[in-house]
Every structure is written in structure tokens, then in C-alpha cells.
């Protein structure tokens, strides 16, 4: 896997329970992301997601064909600790202009609104200076 410094952070993110019942909707803002005319895929990027019981990660690799160097822009949004469990095989995403919308299927039908309002999804941030893994 590529080193962390190669990745940019999304321009912004939001999380709410306004989607389908039993899901949390996470919107990840990626400037310049384009949606294919038909379907829910990106036309100028590859999107990799990894959903686990208490975490998820999304990697977006955008290809800019208009620039001479055709350099890739890589974005990463990595949540290490969700407020509660999700069902990974029932999670999905859709691409919209400048954003990826993730749908996390909750394992238990309880509200996450308190956690989302208080801390958002980033409930665990690893500080390299005080890493628990050292």
C-alpha cells in the first residue's frame, strides 16, 4: 500500500442518519470527481472501499487526463472506530459530482445521532507522537 504522505484528505465530510432506515449516510467531498452519465461509478477516478465491523476506509485515485504529467491525486478517508457495529457486506456507495456518498448499514437499529453530533465519525485519531502501537 502507498505511504500515508501520498494521500490528501477530502475537502470535507458529513455524516447523518437521513438516508434509508438503519443506515448512516457519509458524504466525502472530493473536488473534481466526476460521475459517469449512466450508473453510480466515477468517470475520472477509481474508488476502493474497505468496510469492517467497526471501521471503514475509502481511497479515491483521480486521474487528470487534461494535465501534461497526468499525475494522480489520491484521497483517503479512514475511520478507525465507529460508534457501533456495521454490516460490511450491506454497506455501499454512490458517486455524485465532487463527492462520494457512503451508506453504512448499522448492525443494531439504534441512533448514532448523539455520537455524530458530539464527535462525528472520527472517534479515534492516532497521534504519531503518542501512538498506542509504539
What is the mean predicted local confidence, pLDDT?
Answer: 84
Which class best fits the helix and strand makeup?
mainly beta
Unreliable spans: 123-134
Integer count of domains? 1
The CATH architecture would be Sandwich
Q: How many helices does DSSP assign? A: 1
- Return Rg in Å: 16 Å
Number of strands: 7
As for the CATH topology, it is: Immunoglobulin-like
Strand arrangement, major sheet:
1-2-7-6
Main sheet characteristics: 4 strands, antiparallel
User: Mind telling me the CATH class?
Assistant: Mainly Beta
β-strand percent reads 35-45%
Describe what this molecule looks like in 3D.
The protein has one helix at residues 113-118; strands at 12-16, 23-29, 45-52, 55-63, 72-79, 92-96, 99-105. It has a single domain (4-125), classed as Immunoglobulin-like. Residues 123-134 have low confidence and may be disordered. It has 134 residues and is mainly beta. It has a four-stranded antiparallel sheet, with no helix packed on it. Strand 6 (92-96) and strand 7 (99-105) form a beta hairpin.
